[in-house]
Input
Amino acid sequence: MSPQFSEKALKQVEKIVARYPHKEAALLPVLVLARREFGRIAEEEEKLVAAILGIKPIKVREVVTFYSMLNREKIGKYHIQVCSNISCTVMGAETLLDHIRKKIGIEPGQTTEDGKFSLSTVECLGACEMAPCMMVNEHYYGNLDKKKIDKILDKME
Amino acid sequence: MSEKYLSRNFGVTDSHKIEVYLKGNGYSAVRNALKIKPENIIEEIKKAGLRGRGGAGFPAGVKWGFVPKKTDKPKYLCVNADEGEPGTVKDRYIMTHNPHQLFEGIIIASYAVGINTAFIYIRGEYENIAQRLEEALDEARAEGFLGKNIQGSGFNLDVYVHRGAGAYICGEETALLESLEGKRGNPRLKPPFPASVGLFNCPTVINNVETLANVPVIINVGADAFQKTGQKGDGGTRIFGVSGMVKKPGVYELPVGTTLRDIIFKHAGGMKGSRRLKAVIPGGMSAPVLTADEIDVPMDFESLMEKKSMLGSAGIIVIDQETSMVDVLKVVTKFYAHESCGQCTPCRIGNAWIYRIVKRVAAREAGKRDLDTICRLANNMLGKTLCPLGDAAAMPILAIMKKFRTEIESHLEQ
Ligand SMILES: Cc1cc2nc3c(=O)[nH]c(=O)nc-3n(C[C@H](O)[C@H](O)[C@H](O)COP(=O)(O)O)c2cc1C
Ligand code: SF4
Ligand code: FES
Output
């Protein structure tokens, strides 16, 4: 079945579109919304968004492939994003990434078989003063060490 | 005591709520500014020596002055809240603790330039902050500081939050415009400059969050006092973000021109544990690295330029003796290879190629001639690309290669 926005999401789309003089400008916020609704932006979702905004699906594809937060594949319930940029590296990010890899048994770019965790390395998260740091879904965690990571991940159901 | 223009309420309970902000005399700058002639506000900002806090350090008042006064097109303000430069965390603090001071800056800038619509372009990862901004905007609207006929002045302004979705290059101002228009974040060729042809082909001002948050300060304390807090032509304070191997990483608001040594050793507590200082990146990753004996430099645009580095976004990254400069080089080159938008060949190919060689260097599968190739490729990017990312990559790479060549060579020989 092709994906459909919920009533509530459609209202939000309307509100977003109203902010801009051209409908096309709403594309990125609407894609972010679609990502939240459907968990990914693959071909079906691209077509849906294209139809709503009255633009060509290829235009949507162009944009989707440019931005790292618009994943084309489904990702796990918890998306662990470990910063691998400079301040975090100075503060030992690599050891922590190793720890997480061993703990949940996957490599960056993969999702656990039960769909619980996805793991990625990312560029600077803008939280360098609490390096080493990571995000899980939309939450930031900083000043990490192995113990702290265990505590955070063990709590996730 | 140094002035705390922007960070006074960092950490104060509910500092982001409008009722708390109003109790601390908040929005008085807006009330006063709306009684001043727009062109006089621009003059005052010029006199204050407010330079852009996003990286390039362009004088804000001069930028506003470039926007045509008479035009039949709408004008726009884009607030750069992309904060993608590694080492930079300051805008996150301002938006989290002090959103209304930012809004005051947005309102005054818009009034001065004749703008009725502003967009805050915020990086996608800052989802919780984007929500906080939305709530704060609602509060400001309810109190009559946004919307129609602001404080009975006849001036109208709408402000919207626009979220990015993960792309460093969208912090570059013309890429930001493309992104806001619903396209890939490919930088535009300049000229035309955004002041004449910007968002939706209309005259546009683009300013960083911290730049705008300083605007109400200038209205409150006056251009002279603001200027005197900093240096001539580079007034006010900077929120220095300090990260890396120091005792107290964090944000420190200090006068422009405070020395790098004082920031690291007096304010951020010095080196962590028994670590010794090896190198400092003084202004976000794009700023060429300084060695441990170059840190007596005052942190202002001119002084760092004399050292062939830059103040940039004032994100200070402290590197200790135990960190390998080969690892630093690897992180830096990986970043630029990943973030190049791909439009121009020297940047697209150059950065990817450099990173491939650096990976071999790190694995000790390279020779000294490869180090020369890295420098040659970096030199081939300098000044030959469409947007400043090419230079932003080449300069730090060349600085590491020059200042730490011996360490990198001895890594190869081990
Ligand atoms: C590759 C690149 C990335 C940039 N990223 C940012 C950023 O994340 N935030 C920002 O405010 N400025 C960034 N800038 C600088 C902007 O292009 C622009 O100079 C700035 O937003 C202007 O505002 P200001 O004059 O108030 O500093 C970046 C520039 C380049 C070349
Ligand atoms: S210099 Fe790099 S990032 Fe800038 S436009 Fe060219 S390819 Fe894109
Ligand atoms: S380097 Fe990791 S958050 Fe900035």
User: Anything to note?
Assistant: The longest strand of chain A covers residues 78-83. Chain A has two domains: 7-66, 78-156. Strands of chain A lie at 78-83, 117-122, 134-136, 139-141.
